[in-house]
Amino acid sequence: MNNSTKELIDKIGSDLQSGAAELALKAITVYQHILNNLNHQNINDLKNELTQASILLIKAQPGMAPIFNLCNQVLLTASQAQTIDALKSTCDDTLANVEKELCANAQIIADHVNPLIPPGEVVFVYSFSSTVITALLSARSKGKYFRVASTEARPSFEGRKLAKTLTQGDIEVMHTFDLAMGLVLPSCSIAFMGADCVGLPGVVNKVGSWLLAIACKEHGIPLYVLCDTAKFVNEDRLFEFEKHVRPGLEVWPDFEPTNKNLKILNHQYELVSLNLITGFVTEKGIIKTEDLANNIKSKKVHEALQLEEAFL
Amino acid sequence: MNNSTKELIDKIGSDLQSGAAELALKAITVYQHILNNLNHQNINDLKNELTQASILLIKAQPGMAPIFNLCNQVLLTASQAQTIDALKSTCDDTLANVEKELCANAQIIADHVNPLIPPGEVVFVYSFSSTVITALLSARSKGKYFRVASTEARPSFEGRKLAKTLTQGDIEVMHTFDLAMGLVLPSCSIAFMGADCVGLPGVVNKVGSWLLAIACKEHGIPLYVLCDTAKFVNEDRLFEFEKHVRPGLEVWPDFEPTNKNLKILNHQYELVSLNLITGFVTEKGIIKTEDLANNIKSKKVHEALQLEEAFL
Question: Is the same domain home to B114 and B102?
């Protein structure tokens, strides 16, 4: 694999500001980069490069189901090809389809979300999800007036990116620090969050989602997860998210590393159990939590991405 | 009032790193400064200066009961004096007594806290309270081994000050960002917080305390408030804390003030209702929540500090 491909993947790994769907769109460009800069004589070398890139992409963002699904689809498509030309052509189609679907589904989800937003009231949103943002901007552009309350989302402050994006779309935002969500939630009628992946034990999302969920329960505020069903995964894949631990320096840049009594923890994701979620707004409509099991289907996984082999 | 007194008071008002008891000790120095730099011929001018300083001190930190109590005691003492010399002498005594009591009570509280700390386990602590720190350092110095989990306490990061202070006292600290308290609490056996004031509706403390309290409830972790009974106040005084709103710039230093759709909220205190508190560790021992009412006694309030007159 050449250095420019590695750089693209590293950039995705260190991107703490983007949601899962947005990162999947960025991962598409990694494959496009490989397929547009072919330097292999042998199809097996190309397949190996795609496999390596896929494993690195999943390791870069292990909690993000859309990235895993994309990688898996690309490898399954590539495995069928007999020639380099056929591989390029079928993989290009797969990438185009995934991209089209991600964008189309975001708009379908937005259409399902619109009736949930109570006119004139306040919607709580945490962290950064392109699906949630598309839904809110779409509702506003269709003339619905409402306000958003959001928090900064430490340590990477992607909540500020959320606030900026929404205000640019003419939505009024009340922004505060994370633990002040307890103070603003009583003014909110509904809360939305994105997801990195969803399985039967619960929803994996940015750390802080669990406190949001129990605070919503305490105040009786409905909490919807807005996501494509491509984020629905089996249990084994769900627990991959625990691998995503970030450097402590991101939490406390000038802490003294010589202080042997101090340990900084910087986990990215946590699990919110299903009983705390009101429902899932997906491209198939609103799925009630109790109907989730029927919507999680076992998908064929390329052998290179099966857990035991990929992460030994 | 001279400028140096005003400066001392302003410093207390902008101190977001210290707990209530610590700030009361700093407020004592304001009165000492006035009494040691007497430039009044007339006792009424001196009484007026003390009254003005008291009103400013309470406005500087309206949520902090120990400051209110100190100011009230000083004014009640001063009101009895007939001469400048008598005033100075009786007020010096009052200040010395308050200081002695604050320090002695912190140690008595520490002695009551020690048996609550399960040896070898993890204690959760939020924000910065000198009472909590005294208790933890005291237990450690008596040979008890335990660890502390704490979070940064945005926006002013006084949780970092807590972590540094505890590690210097040879306590291992696991430190993380605020919303990650949901991830670390399951490893904790008990949680401690300080208080700015306590009344029958609940405990006023740094914003974030409510989320901590409902997370403790969710995980079945006992949550104790460590505080001197001088923090127990009547309801009218309790609601003064709502006045403490800080500039939005402290939350988001480089936000665009021209963005008319963006409003930054920066509240300092919130109310945690009593049903979320396991008990109060005070200098009188551990007071159960249901016995709190018997411990809140109406105190005589100097006329200059009665709410209607002081804050018109």
Answer: no
How many Å separate Cα A40 from the centre of its chain?
A: 33
Judgement on whether residues B86 and B65 belong to the same structural domain of the protein: yes
- Average pLDDT (B272-291) is 95
Q: What pTM does this model have?
A: 0.90
B144 in helix, strand or coil? coil
DSSP state of B20: H
> B20 with B138, same domain?
no
Q: What is the pLDDT of residue A174?
A: 97
Q: How far apart are CA A255 and CA A179, in angstroms?
A: 22
Structure tokens at B31: 């009165």
Is the confidence at residue B299, as pLDDT, over 90?
no
Measured between CB atoms, which of B173, B181, B261 is closest to A173? B261
Give helix A209-219 / helix B209-219 axis angle, nearest 10°. 90
The pLDDT score that the predictor gives to residue A302 is: 87
B269 with B121, same domain: the answer is yes
Give yes or no: residues B116 and B232 share one domain: yes
Q: Copy the structure tokens of residue A183.
A: 């103070």
**What DSSP character marks residue A245?**
B
Please name the amino acid found at residue B105: N
Both A168 and A64 in a single domain?
no
Number of structural domains in chain A: 2
Note whether B53 and B31 are within 8 A (CB): yes
Domain that holds residue A244: 109-295
Whether residues A178 and B263 touch (CB distance < 8 A) is answered with no
Q: What is the CATH number of the domain that holds A172?
A: 3.40.50.10470
Question: In the predicted model, what is the mean pLDDT of residues A279-286?
Answer: 96
With 80 as the cut, is the pLDDT of residue B243 above it? no
Confidence of residue A312 (pLDDT cuts 50, 70, 90): very low
Interface test with A, best of B178, B187, B188, B268 (most A CBs within 10 A): B178
- Residue A113 and residue A89 share a domain: no
- For chain B, what's the residue count? 312
Say what the ipTM of the complex is: 0.89
Mean pLDDT calculated for residue range B176-190: 97
Contact B176 A251 (CB under 8 A): yes
Rg (CA), chain A: 20
Under DSSP, the state recorded for A226 is: E
Contacts with B265 from chain A: Cβ below 8 Å: 174-176, 180, 183-184
Do B290 and B306 lie in a common domain? no
* Cα A2 → chain centroid: 27
CATH code at position B101 = 1.20.120.420
